[in-house]
């Protein structure tokens, strides 16, 4: 029945007359605005094709099998202003674009820079248009639009990205070029990043430790804000969203300014507020699941031709409710909650947050400088972060005190040299340093000990281009030191532990352009990861996950060997495909194995123990885009993962299930005042996770939930009121109010996932009589 609904949904959107000639050949030429010299390399992205290209030495990109229609071109190149232009294509032609040099570069926040640094790594992402279409969601929920990315969640309140089955300590998240350190070890600790800051999201799949550090064993997520204004004037943007399910409202505003009499100086101010109450599953409200969040940030940059500096500060503040029914008082209550099809804690709608709940604040300050020299461009970045987490448990005696107060202070430093091209070699070398301190308050519930950590690393990455081939190789050496003070025994006597870890990481890859329409990439990498403090020492209630976690002081570092093969192909005139095959062998893979239930003063919970084994994670991400004509396109994605416990000859527990998705969008202008009007239908099917350990029934209950089908529909348009555009969209998620549970949801034991949610979004960009940039 689910497949029938999927087909009906799609075919109602696809008109039978949707056929059009798509034989146009477009030759794109990119030159410097004043000299007319061809520019190389320039990254060229075309929204409608969802494709990215790079100019050759002659500044050219050739596009074949193009349909007539409107296309939005974006150009990014180191040292040049980001340029975007919409072009109407009616016949085969040459398009010439001119880029202007800017006085200084904030290259760490440009797409071009990130792409260059990870040239051969399999990656996917979301541009500003896709981010705007998903505004109001958390960062983790947004990233589910990327093939191969799922989430580990706690109901509808907390979502954390999972790349090819790996998350938390195995994924590095870079927020505005700074490695985010926000107690990310917790499976229910969502990224403390305001999604409205992001102009693009890029997901690097697979081990990328050489550039991003040892913890990037599973992948990297780059959260990139838009570059600050490079031309005189002021612009602003207002984003509003309303969500029906939990009656949540979201408002976010951003202002950019470049000074007329001080043109090297640009500034930005940004802020977001959102508040939602209890969310609703089919038939029921869910007790104590509201959220409140207020965030703000400021940035300033001083940019000259060959040097510059940037400062950035952001504050993230959130209060989260944790479903009251997930904290049970005894074994009978726990069994009753698990065996019930309905929530056992009655609730109505409210914005009030009670216990259990969490309060999290995250502050990030960054200073960066760059300098061009005869060797190349030097970058130096220093960042300070403070993460403060409070967890309020259910208490028998009323109190305002939090039972866990964690403070994590992190200082990071990076020095990087992008050297000038030597023969056909381009590359970079650098040094990373990190210092961390984690504190708990006296009298807190025991979970993590106080600890200190220091780390240092050096790396080198080089790329070689020769005709249709590109080769890339890199090496990195890391050293990590831990000192922990763990209270132990009946008298909680503090015992000091000290750990030293060091090792090499490496990568080598090649890309071959087999034809104008087919590119094949292969990359080999090895990486390692030291066990984290929570994996070594945790001993108590992990509140948001509603479970007891027990660390293992004898854990050894993980070592990973990764192979990724990727093919990008254009077949015929309308179809483009991407196929990614990967396999990763992880020696000493650390995982949480469910154990016995335990009665504590905070309630009755299941225990999870940190264990190690050798694991093999293999799978594939498939995607295909078909342009029916200039207005109608469909996008199919599939993701399959096979995670084996090699040592036990069994499956690894708690891995995401296979999934398929299909979206179809029809877009066209209706009138001069109604542009880019669209209607889209999205369908997703998640299979039942049957790949579970043979002893699953002895260590966990109940078994993974059944597969499920979800359908979303959206409509939207751009209203042109004179010169003022207004972007509006309406989305209905879980259209059929489907009852379902997800295997990676920590609350799957107790409640279903949210029901239908109607989302209204409005975006208003404002320009204040600015001087044109081109």
In brief:
With 774 residues, the protein is mainly beta.
Fill in the keyword field for this structure.
774 residues; mainly beta; 22-stranded antiparallel barrel; five-stranded mixed sheet; 41 strands; globular; disordered N terminus
Assembly context of the chains = single chain
- DSSP, total strands: 41
State the end-to-end CA separation: 55 Å
Strand content: over 45%
Proportion of residues in helical segments: under 10%
Please outline the major beta sheet.
22 strands, antiparallel, barrel
The secondary-structure class comes to mainly beta
Count of helical stretches? 8
Report the mean per-residue pLDDT as an integer: 88
Low-confidence segments, given as residue ranges, are 1-19, 103-118
Report on this model:
- The strands form six sheets. This protein has a 22-stranded antiparallel beta barrel.
- It is globular and about 75 Å long.
- It has 774 residues and is mainly β.
- The longest helix has 10 residues, at 2-11.
- It has eight helices and 41 strands.
């Amino acid at each position: 029945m689910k497949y029938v609904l999927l087909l009906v949904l799609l075919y109602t959107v696809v008109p039978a007359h949707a056929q059009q000639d798509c034989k146009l050949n477009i030759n794109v030429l990119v030159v410097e605005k004043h000299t007319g010299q061809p520019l190389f390399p320039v990254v060229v992205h075309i929204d409608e094709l969802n494709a990215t290209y790079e100019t050759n030495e002659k500044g050219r990109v050739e596009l074949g099998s193009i349909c007539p229609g409107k296309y939005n071109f974006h150009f990014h190149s180191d040292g040049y202003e980001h340029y975007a232009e919409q072009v109407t294509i009616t016949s085969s032609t040459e398009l010439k674009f001119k880029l202007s040099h800017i006085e200084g570069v904030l290259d760490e926040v440009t797409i071009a820079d990130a792409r260059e640094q990870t040239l051969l790594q399999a990656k996917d992402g979301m541009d500003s248009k896709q981010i705007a279409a998903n505004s109001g969601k958390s960062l983790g929920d947004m990233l589910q639009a990327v093939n191969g990315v799922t989430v580990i969640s706690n109901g509808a309140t907390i979502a954390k990205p999972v790349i090819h089955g790996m998350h938390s300590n195995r994924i590095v998240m870079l927020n505005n070029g700074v490695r985010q350190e926000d107690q990310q070890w917790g499976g229910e600790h969502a990224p403390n990043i305001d999604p409205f800051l992001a102009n693009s999201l890029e997901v690097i799949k697979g081990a990328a430790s050489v550039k991003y550090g040892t913890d990037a064993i599973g992948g990297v997520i780059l959260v990139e804000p838009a570059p600050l204004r490079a031309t005189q004037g002021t612009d602003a943007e207002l984003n509003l969203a309303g969500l029906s399910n939990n009656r949540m409202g979201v408002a976010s505003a951003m202002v950019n300014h470049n000074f007329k009499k001080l043109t090297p100086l640009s500034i930005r101010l940004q802020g977001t507020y959102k508040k939602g109450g209890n969310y609703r599953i089919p038939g029921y409200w869910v007790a104590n699941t509201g959220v409140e969040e207020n965030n703000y940030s400021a940035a300033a940059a001083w940019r000259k031709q060959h040097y510059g500096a940037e400062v950035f500060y952001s504050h993230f503040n959130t209060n989260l409710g944790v479903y009251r029914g997930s904290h049970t008082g005894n074994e009978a209550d726990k069994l009753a909650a698990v065996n019930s099809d309905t929530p056992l804690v009655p609730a109505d709608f409210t914005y009030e947050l009670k216990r259990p709940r969490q309060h999290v604040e995250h502050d990030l300050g960054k200073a960066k400088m760059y300098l061009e020299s005869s060797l190349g461009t030097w970058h130096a970045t220093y960042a300070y972060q403070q993460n403060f987490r409070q967890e309020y448990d259910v208490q028998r005696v009323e109190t305002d005190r939090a039972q866990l107060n964690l403070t994590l202070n992190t200082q990071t430093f990076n020095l990087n040299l992008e050297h000038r091209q030597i023969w056909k070699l381009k590359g970079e070398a650098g040094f990373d340093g990190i210092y961390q301190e984690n504190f708990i308050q006296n009298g807190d519930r025991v979970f993590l000990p106080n600890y200190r950590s220091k780390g240092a690393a050096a790396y080198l990455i080089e790329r070689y281009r020769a005709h249709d081939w590109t080769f890339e190789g890199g090496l990195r050496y890391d050293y990590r030191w831990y000192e922990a003070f763990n209270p132990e025994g009946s008298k909680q006597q503090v015992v000091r532990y000290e750990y030293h870890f060091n090792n090499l990481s490496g990568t080598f890859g090649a890309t071959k352009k087999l034809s104008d329409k087919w590119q094949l990439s292969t990359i080999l990498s090895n990486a390692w990861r030291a066990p984290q403090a929570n994996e070594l020492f945790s001993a108590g209630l992990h509140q948001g996950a509603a479970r007891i976690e027990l660390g293992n002081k004898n854990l050894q570092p993980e070592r990973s060997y990764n192979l990724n093969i990727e093919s990008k192909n254009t077949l015929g005139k309308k179809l483009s495909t991407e196929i990614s095959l990967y396999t990763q062998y992880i020696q000493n893979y650390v995982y949480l194995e469910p154990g016995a239930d335990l009665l504590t003063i905070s309630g009755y919970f299941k225990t999870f123990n940190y264990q190690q084994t050798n694991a093999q994670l293999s799978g594939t991400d498939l995607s295909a885009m078909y342009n029916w004509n200039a207005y109608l396109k469909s996008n199919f994605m599939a993701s399959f993962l096979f995670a084996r416990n090699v040592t036990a000859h069994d499956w690894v527990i708690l891995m995401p299930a296979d999934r398929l998705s299909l979206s179809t969008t029809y877009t066209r202008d209706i009138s001069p005042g109604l542009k880019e009007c669209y209607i889209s239908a999205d369908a997703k099917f998640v299979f039942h996770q049957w790949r579970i350990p043979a002893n699953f029934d002895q260590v966990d209950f109940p078994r993974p939930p059944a597969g499920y089908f979800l359908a979303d529909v959206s409509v939207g348009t751009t209203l042109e009121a004179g010169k003022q555009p207004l972007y509006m969209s309406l989305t209905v998620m879980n259209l059929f109010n489907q009852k379902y549970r997800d295997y990676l949801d920590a609350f799957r034991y107790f409640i279903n996932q949210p029901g239908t949610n109607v989302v209204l979004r409005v975006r208003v960009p404002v320009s204040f009589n600015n001087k044109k940039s081109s």
